[in-house]
Write a structure and sequence with these properties.
It is a single chain. By secondary structure, the protein is an alpha+beta fold. It folds into 3 domains: 184 residues, no CATH class; 54 residues, no CATH class; 217 residues, paralog of FGE (formylglycine-generating enzyme) (Alpha-Beta Complex). It has 18 helices and 13 strands. The strands form 4 sheets. Strands 1-2-5-13-8 form a 5-stranded antiparallel beta sheet. A 4-stranded mixed beta sheet has the order 11-10-9-12. Strand 6 and strand 7 form a beta hairpin. The longest helix is centred in the middle third of the chain and has 30 residues. The N and C termini lie far apart (97 Å). The N terminus is likely disordered.
Length: 649
């Protein structure tokens, strides 16, 4: 049992602390300015208040700056303690279950006296007027009395709260007094054993804490390795995991690292930021201070990265993709998850491959010197495909092999449809160009009477497939490769862009549009009108039938249809597999041996024969295949042959 002097000192200190806490609470509530703090102060300021305000019940609080009478108690940074009532609630036992036993006036009187003794700080000690003695007397009369059991649980919780505050303040004497009192409370053996162990552990680590505090004052928070304040605090916690001084020592060291991170981010030293945050995380990985600082730093970094990415967009808009990429890399180095970087990367890729257009985009270039514009163009996506046909494909010809991979690495645009009569008329009017049909005497047109093609000396680009006057929306026919090339060169002059005929590889790539089948829509006859090709259901004006046509198919036209009358292929291009066959840029070669694999045209200087690709309104099914190709002299004219243009991006 503690001596009478010990109990008296406990009572006096406990009462004084209670009065001090009550006075402080009133002072903080009504005169916060006297404490140099506002009720709505930020967390750091409130922490400083807590350092001075939360003295443990039963212990004396020294004013800040007062020299310690016991230097060993100042072993580290100032600590923040929760009020005793908070700790007491944390330790309070669960409510005693069960109904209340029958009471008597004598028991009620004892319980009232016990409550008053508890509230007056007379917890344990000699004599019959302490809370412990009075609750024990009740249980002697009524062993199941719930109020008495709850009172003892509350008494145990209060002693444990005082023990925690005593240990946190480094007051071993007070902690020893609490231990002696706790041993008198029934069912407290386990709590007393743990408290005894903690007192011994604290006595063991106190020299480490004193040495760590000295190292902090010398600026040796983290160095030298193995003999720094950080190392000593960790060693102390290994021996006493609940030591408040050591814990707050680590927090102080971590705050130093976090301050370095904030200083580094203010100077755009992001490598320094990462190093400081890594150091802070190694000290206390899950601390709230670390999470808060990371959030602040990331916000600053993201804001800075967004600013640099905005500069990258401006560089891209100005036509400088190299600088734009350099700035984008800087933005990612600052903040890897900077918003908008994925969208920017798409724009950058499109700028490099498609001159800031996007795949599938439709556009038309305006003329530089006069009103008007070029044909509508579609941006063809880059990619790879197998050019030609395999040996086993029905209709395969030797000129379609060997099948080989072609990589379309550079974006290009292809006209949505064949060049129309109206578009070609603009060219002739602007230049006075004389076509091959006009110079060489006509073209080959369809003769309804015989059901075959015949030469007509009068047919020109202004006429349709029969030699009659064409409509402006019809594809221009009766034009040679030379005429088509002249039109493309005229477009280049008018727009300032490089127009040309597509290469054979580009045409097949765009015609297939990702397909590997005989036709871009599949391997057999179309199930719905997709192209103007020979169908078993088609009829000529005199009700002629095709001798070799797609079975079960009818598109409603005998001869070319106005452009874009049918469905586009998956690349958004019309009439690629039908309507009229088309000139491409390549010279004719009997096969693909030694053919370029980058999609460029295979041209020999002075070649006289060019390549014709794509089916027409009069082609049999084998000639509509995606791999089908034909040679033709460059001055050939036909009512089944037209062209479309390509543009470099």
């Amino acid at each position: 049992m503690p001596s009478t002097e010990t109990v008296r000192r406990q009572h006096a200190l406990g009462g004084a602390a209670g009065v001090a806490l009550l006075g402080f609470a009133l002072l903080y509530r009504f005169y916060p300015d006297l404490l140099h703090v506002r009720p709505g102060a930020p967390p750091q300021e409130r922490d400083r208040i807590a350092d001075n305000a939360a003295a443990p019940m039963g212990f004396e609080q020294r004013p800040a700056g007062t020299p310690s009478q016991a230097p060993e108690r100042d072993a580290g940074p100032p600590i923040s303690l929760a009020p005793a009532v908070v700790i007491e609630r944390r330790h309070a036992a669960a409510a005693v279950a069960g109904g209340e036993a029958a009471s008597t006036p004598e028991i009620d009187k004892l319980l009232d006296r016990a409550r008053k003794a508890y509230q007056g700080g007379r917890l344990v000690g000699p004599g019959a007027d302490t809370a412990l003695s009075l609750y024990a007397a009740v249980l002697g009369l009524a062993p199941d009395n719930r109020r008495a059991k709850a009172g003892l649980a509350e008494l145990r919780a209060r002693l444990l709260a005082e023990s925690e505050q005593a240990l946190a303040a480094g007051d071993d004497d007070a902690a020893g007094d609490v231990l002696a009192a706790l041993k008198q409370v029934p069912d407290s053996d386990a709590d007393a054993a743990r408290l005894d162990q903690r007192i011994k552990a604290q006595q063991q680590v106190r020299p480490l804490l004193v040495q760590a505090a000295d190292l902090l004052k010398q600026g040796k928070a983290t160095t030298p390795a193995g003999a720094s304040a950080l190392d000593l605090y960790r060693k102390a916690l290994a021996a006493d995991p609940q030591n408040a001084v050591a814990h707050q020592g680590l927090e102080q060291i971590q705050r130093g690292a976090l301050d370095q991170a904030l200083a580094a981010v203010a100077q755009d030293d992001f490598a320094g930021v990462d190093a400081a945050l890594a150091q802070a995380a190694a000290i206390l990985p899950g601390s709230q201070a670390l999470q808060d600082t990371r959030g602040r730093v990331e916000g600053i970094r993201r804001q800075r990265a967004e600013s640099v990415l905005a500069q990258a967009r401006s560089a891209l808009d100005a036509g400088n993709p190299a600088l734009a990429q350099q700035l984008a890399r800087q933005a990612l180095a600052i903040s890897p998850d900077v918003p908008g970087v994925d969208e920017f990367n798409v724009r950058l890729r499109n700028a490099r491959l498609y001159a800031s257009y996007r795949p599938g985009q439709v556009f038309a270039d305006r003329f530089l010197d006069t009103a008007g514009q070029g044909p509508s163009m579609v941006v063809v996506p880059t990619g790879s495909f197998l050019m030609g046909s395999p040996d086993g494909e029905p209709g395969h010809r030797a000129s379609e092999g060997p099948q080989h991979q072609v990589d379309i690495a550079n974006g290009f645009a292809l006209a949505r449809s064949e060049v129309t009569v109206g578009q070609f008329r603009e060219f002739v009017r602007a230049t006075g160009y004389v076509t091959s049909a006009e110079r060489l005497g006509g073209s080959s047109v369809y003769d309804e009477a015989s059901g075959s093609m015949r030469d007509s000396r009068r047919a020109t680009w202004q006429d349709d497939y029969t030699g009659a006057r064409a409509r402006d929306g019809d594809p221009v026919v009766n034009v040679s490769w030379n005429d088509a090339d002249a039109y493309a060169r005229w477009l280049s002059q008018r727009t300032g862009k490089r127009y040309r005929l597509p290469s054979e590889a580009e045409f097949e790539y765009a015609l297939r549009a990702g397909s590997v089948t005989r036709y871009w829509w599949g391997d057999g006859a179309p199930r719905k009108p997709v192209e103007n090709v020979t169908g078993a259901g088609d009829r000529s004006p005199s009700h002629r039938l095709w001798s070799n046509a797609f079975p079960g198919y009818r598109d409603g036209y005998w001869g070319p249809a106005p452009v874009m009358s049918f469905a586009p292929n998956p690349f958004g291009l019309y009439d690629m597999g039908g309507n009229v066959s088309e000139w491409v840029d390549d010279c004719w070669h009997d096969n693909y041996t030694r053919a370029a694999r980058d999609g460029s045209a295979w041209i020999n200087p002075g070649c006289e024969r060019r390549v014709v690709r794509g089916g027409s309104w009069g082609s049999d099914p084998d000639q509509v295949r995606s791999a089908f190709r034909l040679p033709a002299p460059a001055d050939t004219r036909s009512g089944r042959l037209g062209f479309r243009v390509a543009r470099d991006l």
